């Protein structure tokens, strides 16, 4: 007998909760904000909206389903199952945070603060949750298959991301490495830079787009469902030992970018989750490419 679906509600600690954890009481938090020209009323209002949205979504889960909750900080320790329907209640970025830990489960994005969030990934309102859950659990339910990017190291470490993967030095140092296409006989260029960014069409609304605009790149930005990635080297430094001829490009299906570390330490993280990063040392190699996994975002 197959298990009933499980609704997994993904959320994050609100600013109000963080303030209470830091200052102890509502009054102390209000005093702290007022000393910086802010009112706690708006922060408390948004906290209330988020809690109400969570309660509304939880109430919309069918009675025969199982239900669980996971906070953003615990995602890397949470075990998702194949029968899960993942409901992200919060901001667009929270969908990206959850995506790297999934393997094909349908995702429903619920916007807790319409008008404040762009709504690129959290496209729906709490009152639509019941219908969306049924649709997500139905075979052939309508969903956008959003392209993801992956980094695979030579020691089998693997990292997935929905928006972008960044490879670079810890802190504000310089990363040294060799960069080139992942193809037999392809030349690799030694480089010194502040890092390499490889992004998807979903990421083209954020960090990737800022680099694309800064470079005035003629490469067309991919759409979220396009099987295409763009990559840029940040602040490559020309010297007698390092070059700047390979600083941007495009990766299609079956293509990859290979980076070999030539410094003591390089970190690799996705979608801003620095706490869940790969660490590579001298001589290690990592390949970046389109992932076989995609994010199934319920429409």
Secondary-structure element pattern, one letter each: EHHHEEHEHEEEEEEHEEEEEE
Query: So what's the overall shape?
Result: globular
Task: State the low-pLDDT regions, or none.
Answer: none
Distance, first to last CA: 29 Å
Global mean pLDDT: 94
Percentage of helical residues?
Answer: 10-25%
What is the count of DSSP helices, taking H or I runs of 4+ residues?
A: 6
Strand fraction equals: 25-35%
Q: Compute the gyration radius: what is it?
A: 21 Å
Protein name: Inorganic polyphosphate kinase
InterPro entries: ATP-NAD_kinase_N, ATP-NAD_kinase_PpnK-typ_C, NAD/diacylglycerol_kinase_sf
Describe the model.
It contains six helices and 16 strands. It is globular and about 60 Å long. The chain has helices at residues 15-23, 26-34, 40-60, 92-99, 129-137, 207-215, and strands at 6-11, 66-71, 84-90, 106-111, 143-153, 158-161, 164-168, 175-181, 189-193, 196-199, 229-233, 248-251, 256-261, 266-270, 278-280, 285-298. The strands form two sheets. Strands 1, 2, 3, 4, 5, 6, 8, 9, 13 and 16 form a ten-stranded mixed beta sheet that branches. Strands 12-11-10-7-14-15 form a six-stranded antiparallel beta sheet, with helices on one face. The model has no long low-confidence stretch (mean pLDDT 94). It is an alpha+beta fold and 299 residues long.
